[in-house]
Design brief:
Blueprint (H helix, E strand, L loop, with lengths): L1 H8 L1 H26 L7 H17 L9 H30 L5 H7 L4 H4 L1 H20 L5 E3 L5 E3 L1 H9 L2 H28 L7 H31 L2 H12 L1 H13 L1 E6 L3 E6 L5
Antiparallel strand pairs: 1-2, 3-4
Helix pairs in contact: 1-2, 2-4, 2-9, 2-10, 4-7, 7-9, 8-10, 9-10
The structure holds protoporphyrin IX containing FE (HEM).
Protoporphyrin IX containing FE binds next to helix 2, helix 3, helix 4, helix 7 and helix 8.
């Protein structure tokens, strides 16, 4: 037990945990970028259908029939990874500064001819945190549009929510700039994580560095192109027509909600309390 505490409080332990959480987040970011390409079909109706089917699949995915949706577990792991990564970054930054008698780490590092990305790691990291707050507020908890899926159910239209946000030139520009910052952060993080893990090899280190550059450029460009493409799509008359169609679904949606409520039956079980049972027509 003692060794775990010793490891977790040591500088190398913290750096390795940062590396692992960072690697996990980098994988998530890549998957997220690939999924988001579905926003960009220039036939808006197809883009809307495929993107909404994709988000419905992600939110409903539960092959093992857990009592809690898989997406909540994934979100919990994501929040924990982000929180740990950020907490350790700030802690290491403060400890490094203290160890150098108050002189900033970057000042020393710059003398060692490191890149601009190294110099700005903590600031690009804090910028990404700000980006994430905006991102989740505007998309996850943002405006609700409605969409009728191929089963005739009215669900949330994530395609319209996302496209509409990026249709605002200020947000589209903010996204393109943010992707540049994210790319820079990833670029330095990858080579630094391998160094922390003790992988420094004459032959392999340049290959890892190159892979890091390619990965960061692909991710930054992939997201930036998505944001720019979404901006274009949002400002087309076909998209505006889809917004009207979405708004027209409101009365039908309310009716659907009422029917769902009515299908629920409450039972009072003495030692448990009130239990609501919902009868699903598909069963
Ligand atoms: C063009 C760029 C991007 C677009 C269009 C986009 C789109 C979205 C959408 C639509 C959601 C909500 C999904 C839902 O609630 O069903 C989402 C969630 C999220 N995005 Fe992005 N995203 C972009 C870039 C990024 C980047 C660069 C990061 C990381 C730095 C990121 C991290 C997240 C996270 C952590 C969530 C929450 C995941 C969840 O709750 O399951 N996104 N994004």
């Amino acid at each position: 037990m003692q060794w775990i505490i010793k490891y977790l409080t040591s500088s190398i332990g913290k750096k390795q945990i940062m590396g692992c959480t960072g690697a996990f987040l980098a994988l998530f970011i890549f998957g997220h970028m690939c999924g988001n390409f579905q926003l960009l079909n220039f036939d808006q109706v197809s883009a809307q259908a495929s993107y909404n089917a994709y988000t419905e699949f992600l939110t409903g995915f539960n092959p093992l029939h857990f009592p809690i949706k898989m997406i909540y577990l994934v979100e919990l792991v994501l929040v924990a990874a982000f929180a740990l990564h950020i907490f350790l970054a700030i802690k290491l930054k403060i400890e490094n500064k203290k160890a150098r008698g108050g002189i900033d780490y970057e000042l020393n590092v710059r003398k060692g001819k490191k890149t601009f990305a190294t110099f700005t790691m903590i600031w690009s990291g804090l910028f990404i945190l700000g980006f994430l707050v905006q991102h989740l507020m505007m998309l996850k908890f943002g405006e609700h549009y409605l969409y009728m899926n191929d089963k005739g159910e009215i669900v949330r239209d994530m395609w319209l929510t996302t496209i509409q946000m990026l249709g605002n030139p200020a947000w589209a520009a903010f996204y393109v700039i943010s992707m540049f910052v994210i790319g820079m952060h990833l670029f330095h993080a990858i080579s630094s994580a391998f160094q922390t893990m003790g992988i420094a090899h004459q032959k392999w280190t340049p290959v890892i560095d190159l892979a890091g550059i390619v990965y960061s450029v692909v991710v930054a460009l992939g997201f930036a192109v998505t944001a720019a493409g979404a901006f274009y799509l949002a400002n087309q008359p076909e998209t505006q027509a889809l917004i009207e169609k979405s708004r027209a679904l409101q009365p039908q949606y309310e009716q659907q909600q009422k029917e769902k409520e009515a299908a629920k039956t409450s039972y009072v079980i003495p030692s448990v309390g009130t239990v609501e049972v919902s009868f699903n027509a598909e069963i």
